[in-house]
Structure formats: C-alpha cells, structure tokens
Amino acid sequence: MKKIELYDTTLRDGAQTEGISYSVVDKLKIVEKLDDLGVQFIEGGWPANSKDKEFFRELQKKHLKNAKAAAFGATCRADKKPDSDISIKGILEADTEVVTIFGKTWDLHVKDALRISLDENLRIINDTVSYLISKGKTVIYDAEHFFDGYQANPEYALKTILTAQEAGALRIILCDTNGGTITSRLIKIINIISPKVKAKLGIHTHNDIGLALANSIAAVEAGAVQVQGTFNGYGERCGNADLSAVIGILKTKMDIDCISDKNLKELTKTAHFISEVSNMRQQTNQPFVGTSAFVHKGGVHIDAMLKNPKTYEHIDPVIVGNHRRILASELAGKMPIILKAKEFNIDLDKKSPETAKILDMLQKLELEGYQFEAADASFELLIKRELKQYKDFFDLKGFKVVVEKKSDGRLTSEAVVKVKVKGVSEHTIAEGDGPVNALDNALRNALKSFYPTLAKMHLSDFKVRVLDAKVGTAAKVRVLIQSQDEESDWGTVGVSENIIEATWEALVDSVEYKLLKDSKENKK
C-alpha cells in the first residue's frame, strides 16, 4: 500500500486565519490531538516570535507518540551568515528534530521582495540548508511560490529546488502560495520536473481559487509523498488544503496509508475539537466531517436510503467518525420521525399512533414558524418529551432581561434567572455584551455547580429571522442557535413574537441537549 506523509501546519499557517489567535495552551492541546490521530509532522510555528518560543519550550517537555514536531523559518538574510542570523538561532533553540525552511523560487520575489541577485538567492538557500543539516537537523524545504515561479522562469525555479536538494534537504515541497494554479497546469509542471529531482516531493496548496484540495490530491497522483495542509482548511485569505478532507480521500477513495483505520474513526472528532479550540464555527457542509456531510431531507432520498444507504452516501459515515442524520420537515413525512426514534432505541413504525401524533405536532409547529432542519437537537428533545422519555434537567421559575443605555453612552445588558435544580432554587444575575449573552451567562451561573460540563460548551452562532414582515414589530421571529463543545455542534430553535422569549427557548434547548448528550456518554 502506498504511504503518504501528512504535514499539519494548522498552528502556523492556520493561525493566520482572520479571527484565530492561539495561546500556547491552545497549541499544545491541538498538538496532542494531531499526535493521537497519527499525523506524521506537526509544524509548531516560527520560533522567531516570543509566543512560539514559549510554545517550543513547553513542547520539549512533551512526548509525542506518532508525530515529529517541526520548527519553521526562512532562509537566512542576505547580509547574514546562517550562524549569525537571529531567525536561524531561534530555530535551533526550538530543539526540534525536523526544521522546515522556505525560500524564494519566483524570480519576481527575489528581485522585488528580497532585492538581491538571483545567484545570491541560490547562495542563501544552499548556506541555510547546509548549516542546519550540519547541526543535525532534518530539513524540509518549502519552495515558496514554486508554480508561479516556474511559469515565469522555469529554469531558475528548478535551480532553486535543486540547490536545496544538493544542500541535503530531505523533502522538497512545491508550494502554490498564491493559490491560483489550476490543476491541469500543476500536474503538467510536476510531471516535467519530477524526473530532474532526486529528493522526494511534497505539496503545499492554498485555496484562493477553490482548488487546494484538488491540487493536493492531483500532486499525490503525480508522485508527491507528503501533503501539507491545515485542519478545517484554516489559513490566511481563502485558507489552505483541508487535511481532514485530504485524509478522507486518501483513505477511503485511493486506498493510501496515511493514518490507521482505527484513527480514521477519530477524524470527525479531531476536526470539531480543533474548531472548538480555534473558536471557529464548524462548517456544516464540510466534506467527511461536517454535520451536514451525511444529512438527508427529501422523502425520496430517505426512502432509498432505508433500502440501501449507498444510494445517497459515498461512504459509511461511521468510517470517519461521523453519523447519518435525517432532517425533519414536511418534505419527509413520517420516515425521519421513525429513524430519529430508532437512534433513541424507540421502536416506531408508520402505523403507530405515536408517529402520527408526532407528525401532526411537527406540522403544526412548522405552521407556527418552527423549522427543525437546522435544529436537530430541538427535534430530538421534542420527540423525547412527547414520548415521555425525557426528564428536564432543571425547571424555570422566571427570568428578566434589562437593557440600559447609560448617560455616558454605554449600553449594558443584565439578566436575572430563577431556576430549580435537583430540588435547589437558584437565583442568579449576570451581565453580558447583549441580552442573549447576559441570559446565557445567567443560566450557566445557575447550573454550573450542578453540571460542570457546561463550561465546555459555547454558543457559536445566533440567527434571527422575521417570519412575517408585514406585521412589523408584532411579527413572530425565529431564533436559531448553534452551539458546540470539544466533540460536536448542534442546533436549536425558538419561535415567539418576543425575541427574548424565542431566544430563551432556543437557549434552554441548547443547554438541555448538552446535558442529555453528556448523560448518554456517562452511561456508555
């Protein structure tokens, strides 16, 4: 079986995503998860900056079971020798076995960015790689802007990677740094240069025209032995190749060994964990690991799925640690109710009165404005409550939200929540950035001593839709809340003429679902 190396750069390239800022603790958590998954190389960052210096110091205390950590940096400055370059010194101090160095391949960058001669650039590539190898390092060489450079000046672009090879680089990584190379052109270039390069090649792609994943897979088919990317496709601009999809394709479509079959079942959990630590909402339509990757809504699809799942699923979702979801809507009739009940070990069929009753209730709720397609958690709670198979984790006694504009212009929100939990009355007050945040904080404060795992969840998205604009301010609104923890995300819904009441309904469902989910895990 062909073997492909996975090189994760979430902690460096992924950290350049707008909205992501990893702490040292965050980075160490992600390293542990990637190591458990079986990723071969984890790029920790650029030890030239203080945060990454601290990270590498902490990493030296860890024992990685599967992965090798890599420190990242650039070739030495033209006016410095490698042994006197501060950046190179930082790389050595990181004390990793593997070092990844990027150098200029595109003559435009050499002339306009570095403002040195083409020969001088070749010298600093050679000197940097040779020096690091003399210090006992394994060097991976990232040929930055390789495909743009090759199209502009093929002879020089080839010289740069041959220089790195002759200096002793173990891998030469061809980078589509601007992410603008089309797949057919990328394959053509790789096929031309491959016979001229003795070192093993790798691929590093960006997604600026939506081809990062396709280009990575095409490069593997063209002979690349290493794929660099980020989990969930994080990265600056449009992101990098999504390693979760790369892994899914290599394992399930190409029979290529990159992680074990056992670890493949942790793929979805790993992707969701990294999105949680990154404080980024998981994309529901993300291939292999998204919550909608194996979702079915239409009645015809659902009927076919019951007869043979292969009719509308390219793989069994269990293989990658995901699961099939049947959405409840008027399009699907009784079938999603039956299938959803089966997930709860409840036996229903099309003729049972419970099924008819739930369908009737569902249709009435949809007329009122409820929509459960993006609120699967609320639908699960709905069925369990209707079938008397669910007991609330707490009882609401009342809540109040006050929004006040101060004389100095500041806007404050304060929520008061009264609940009864396990026979104990709780009365809490909390402030927030807005009324939703204040309500969320107050409810958590009331429950946290009884249910500590609530600290591991947070609201990741909040949507409000006016259902009948003609009614104006008296119109009903539908609130959809997306929540997530370290393992999964879920949606809940609330509907009311009062936006705070609709929010509260969705918020309570979100918390109740988290507690229900945790109670299921504890019973396993």
Automatic annotation (TrEMBL):
SMART domains: LeuA_dimer. Residues 4-268 form the Pyruvate carboxyltransferase domain. GO terms for biological process: isoleucine biosynthetic process; L-leucine biosynthetic process. Pathway: Amino-acid biosynthesis; L-isoleucine biosynthesis; 2-oxobutanoate from pyruvate: step 1/3. The keyword Transmembrane helix does not apply. The keyword Transport does not apply. It catalyses: pyruvate + acetyl-CoA + H2O = (3R)-citramalate + CoA + H(+). InterPro entries: 2-isopropylmalate_synth_dimer (IPR013709), AIPM/Hcit_synth_CS (IPR002034), Aldolase_TIM (IPR013785), Citramal_synthase (IPR005675), LeuA/HCS_post-cat (IPR054691), LeuA_allosteric_dom_sf (IPR036230), PYR_CT (IPR000891). SUPFAM superfamilies: 2-isopropylmalate synthase LeuA, allosteric (dimerisation) domain (SSF110921), Aldolase (SSF51569). PANTHER family: (R)-CITRAMALATE SYNTHASE, ALPHA-IPM SYNTHASE/HOMOCITRATE SYNTHASE. This is Citramalate synthase. It comes from Candidatus Taenaricola geysiri.
